[in-house]
Amino acid sequence: MTAAPPAVRVGVDVGGTKVEAVAIDAAGGILARMRRETVRGEAGVIASVSDAVARVAAEPGVGPVAAVGIGIPGQIVGARVRNAVNLGISDLDLGGEVTAAVGAAVHVENDVNAAAAGAYAIRGAVGASMAYLNLGTGIAAGIVHDGRVWPGAGGTAGEVGHVSIDPRGPECPCGQRGCIETLAGGGAVARRWSGDGEHPVLDLFDAADAADGRALSLRGDLARGVAAAVRVLVLTADPAVVVIGGGVSRLGDRLLDVVRGELRASSERSAFLTSLRLHERIELLPSDAPAGALGAALLAPAFEGVARG
Hints:
Elements: E1 8-14, E2 18-24, E3 30-37, H1 42-57, E4 65-72, E5 75-77, E6 80-84, E7 89-92, H2 94-102, E8 105-110, H3 111-122, E9 129-135, E10 139-145, E11 148-149, H4 180-184, H5 186-193, H6 200-209, H7 213-237, E12 242-245, H8 253-267, H9 271-276, E13 282-284, H10 291-298, E14 307-308
Parallel strand pairs: 1-4, 4-8, 9-12, 11-14, 12-13
Antiparallel strand pairs: 1-2, 2-3, 5-6, 6-7, 9-10, 10-11
């Protein structure tokens, strides 16, 4: 009699345009990986996630699925997702619906917290603490302390995007002015730049490199916003490292250089900030790393790895 293959866990990262899924073994190794487009709306998201789970489970050598973890934007209450506006979700029992569709236990997690768990694992679970700073359409962070994702008392730990650093700055949908997200979020930068290209933040950096005055100003705002987010994270959670990921991070060293320059400049007049060596605490997540999907899998039920706080 042939022994059944060991059960695996599947992690699914749900974004506004794509769904990414990975299957992992008991040691956290990736067995299979896939991407597909996201279908918006409650029925569409359920179908997108269920299909992604089925696809990776069907890959050779994967075997039965023991549990599923889902990372998704929005307010997470138990297994429910609320106010995921970009996905067209107001209130959805995503965990219950996916459990019924795939026949496995499901854990639902905020997408940035899931990515934080994944980034921690990708780094080899090195160090007692780490912050993951997601620079996407918006800005948010996830914090890992002693190997555990720390969501805070109400699930808002790491919402650095809505820290106001300029009371006279651009208006933010949250009702404040000059929030970090209005200066450095990919969506806000694209609106302020008003370019016609497919990759407005990249176009902005190219224009700044060509000495376009307006582009230089906006790139400076972006660097100032990201640097402020790093300072907030270090001064409140004191992580050993801040790992930067998300779509904007694909600029690579071009982003890292201007942020490090801003961190050095803003520390010059403060011996205290200088002592923190903020510019040395930041690094980029590898651009092809499936941090969100991997983290969701690691946070799935009964996995003995990175834990939920």
